[in-house]
Amino acid sequence: MGSVSRFEGRNVLVTGGLGFIGSNLSHALVHAGANVTVLDELVAQHGGDRRNLAGLDGVRLVIGDIADPSVAVEAVRGADFIFNVAGQVSHHESMTDPLRDARLNVTAHLEFLETIRRHRPEACMVHTSTRQVYGLAQYFPVDERHPTIPRDINGANKLACESYHRLYATVHSVRTVSLRLSNIFGPRQCLSKPGLGFMPVFLARALRGEVLQVFGDGSQTRDCLFVDDLVTAMLEAALRLDDGRLESGDVVNIGHDQVLSLKLIAERICAIAGTGSRAEMVPWPPHLDRIDIGAFQGDYRKAKHLLDWEPTTSFEAAAQKTLDFYGANTWYL
């Protein structure tokens, strides 16, 4: 992508940069010649790891909380771009400890927005949200005008966080866009902690040759996106904020046009892994059934139009690349 060269020499802050998405983004930015600062609190449950930045030279690493002004003010100083990836992603954990989820996904981000408003409002900020804000789909494909009726605490808090980013754009002229992400997977995703999504569970079990448990009849659909394609979308969103081609405060769906059932996803991962693992349908655990969103199929025409972006990696190719990565980096297991 030719436009990535526009990051050369620019100052970029990545919050949550030791985690899955943030670390992959940091690798891409360093390779593009950016001056990268990573701010990460290394929350135990979230899967961040210093080893995710292995092999990168020149990254300034700040261990701290985005809600702590004494840390955040210095981190945002001089930033041209901010990728706000920090947050709690477990839907189940959000239901068992809703106040913690609110602190991490709402209050902390409001503190961070205040820091940006006061100290670096000219920076262009890309905030990662989730398609979970939509809840149960009322029609397919789900576009950005679809009602937002979250089905769990995490989705509700992510929607609130989006609203604060939009408000700071319209009222305080902070330059920001929120990307509503589908199921993202790929290298550097934590495979050893629960609650980080079904894909890392499937991948870990397949690598070990274990049974992949699929809840219900497995007919519910998802569109899974390779992390490299997401990184491209995030970079394009930042650049279009920078040159005014993207309206500040906007929200954009990011996902894949390839829609597969969970049963088929599990079966294809088993086949690609080649370890003797297999998929098995099991009854829904009641505590998870209550917050499941059912089938999902996103509408990504807005991203294609505004970002000139579309995914380039098929599910099968992405799964092969991902399994190859973990095969060569077994410490993730």
Quick summary:
It is built from eleven helices and 13 strands. The protein is α/β, with parallel strands linked by helices and 333 residues long. Helix 5 links the parallel strand 5 and strand 6.
Strand order, main sheet: write it out: 3-2-1-4-5-6-11
**Main beta sheet:** 7 strands, parallel
Average pLDDT works out at 96
* Low-confidence blocks of residues: none
Please provide the ordered H/E string of secondary-structure elements.
EHEEHEHHEHEEHEEEHEEHEHHH
Name the CATH superfamily classification of the domain at 8-185 and 226-257 and 298-312.
NAD(P)-binding Rossmann-like Domain
Number of helices: 11
What is the annotated CATH architecture of the domain at 8-185 and 226-257 and 298-312?
A: 3-Layer(aba) Sandwich
Broad shape: globular
Strand residues, percent: 15-25%
Helix percentage range: 25-40%
Distance between the termini: 32 Å
Account of the protein in words:
- With 333 residues, the protein is of the alpha/beta class.
- It has a domain at 8-185 and 226-257 and 298-312: 3-Layer(aba) Sandwich (Rossmann fold), CATH 3.40.50.
- It is 40% helix and 17% strand.
- It is built from eleven helices and 13 strands.
- It has helices at 20-31, 69-76, 91-96, 98-119, 153-172, 198-208, 227-242, 262-273, 286-289, 301-307, 315-328, and strands spanning 11-15, 35-40, 60-63, 81-84, 124-130, 175-181, 183-185, 212-215, 221-222, 224-226, 251-254, 260-261, 279-282.
- The chain has a seven-stranded parallel sheet with strand order 3-2-1-4-5-6-11, sandwiched between helices. It has a two-stranded parallel sheet with strand order 7-10. Strands 8-13 form a two-stranded parallel sheet.
- Strand 5 (124-130), helix 5 (153-172) and strand 6 (175-181) form a beta-alpha-beta unit.
- The mean pLDDT is 96.
